[in-house]
């Protein structure tokens, strides 16, 4: 049984490798479409490297754009950084919107609804507060929207770890597992049918065509849900040819596991069959168990060697060729530990429906949030 699981995982790693190669062979989107853009950044609290991430949005080689930061609490500590940003970049239109109405359980979406009302321009870019972008980010994200059939643009991202083990495990998981899974889904489903919080680029007219952002107010995975609804409406969701960066927090082991459980239970609720299939993607743990339960038989050792080689080769290709990140290679020795923990998290995700998010606790019901604590 363990050998079958390891063999299935070998096939999955091969699919990830093939999908990454296919992604690199795609035809580049011609740049030159540069409509005015409103960048919306909902905030709650501070994140590692937040100011430099904010700053990267002010250094865009782009003709015309504004940045709107939204908070529900006028005393939010992130606002100090925004005011510092306004002082450093007086020529960039930077506005703060205090979102006084709580429209639903997902306060981020509640803020976005109110921020969207304040946006001057029709073309919108939303990304998470810890996302750092290159100088040609807006040009490359806007390019696909020139095609009227495209409804949403999202993009891949790499993790820049901090010093803690939890932060490094998070970055390894993003780059060697989650991003590969995104490209595998792109291959199997003949396109992307979800969005990623790293970037959501769309027009106001597209959002109106799916009923606005209000239907997302109680969903945890609002980025996923937005992409799914755009795809269901017959518009294409595409991956831009730009990679951005995220900065995982300095997680303790406990907070890392809690964060992974939130992520896992979110995916379980939104992609149930796909999530069940993840059981067959933990190649190294299954191969190690095959060695243990075969009492060290040489075929089991050979299987472990083959599966580990494919796991590391697929991960290396993804990190260096697709995500352009060689720094993460120094933490590749953590991959087996990360894979064992991922298997335990997968099992643990079925033990409940509660998630912790930004200091609050919720109950998940069909992807929607039900607040537990006031």
Summarize the structure.
The protein has 13 helices and twelve strands. It has 374 residues and is of the alpha/beta class.
Q: How is the secondary structure organized here?
A:
Layout: H1 2-24, E1 37-42, H2 50-57, E2 65-71, H3 78-88, E3 94-98, H4 107-118, E4 123-126, H5 137-142, E5 150-154, E6 157-159, H6 165-188, E7 200-203, H7 204-209, H8 222-232, E8 236-239, E9 244-246, H9 253-270, H10 272-277, H11 283-293, H12 298-322, H13 335-348, E10 354-357, E11 360-365, E12 368-371
Helix pairs in contact: 1-6, 1-11, 1-12, 2-3, 6-9, 6-12, 6-13, 9-13, 11-12
State the CATH class: Alpha Beta
User: Which architecture per CATH?
Assistant: Alpha-Beta Complex
Low-confidence stretches: none
What is the general shape? globular
How would you sum up this structure, described in words?
With 374 residues, the protein is α/β, with parallel strands linked by helices. It has one domain: Spore Coat Polysaccharide Biosynthesis Protein SpsA, Chain A, CATH 3.90.550.10. Helices cover 47% and strands 15% of the residues. It has helices at 2-24, 50-57, 78-88, 107-118, 137-142, 165-188, 204-209, 222-232, 253-270, 272-277, 283-293, 298-322, 335-348; strands spanning 37-42, 65-71, 94-98, 123-126, 150-154, 157-159, 200-203, 236-239, 244-246, 354-357, 360-365, 368-371. The chain has a five-stranded mixed beta sheet, with helices on both faces. The model has no long low-confidence stretch (mean pLDDT 91).
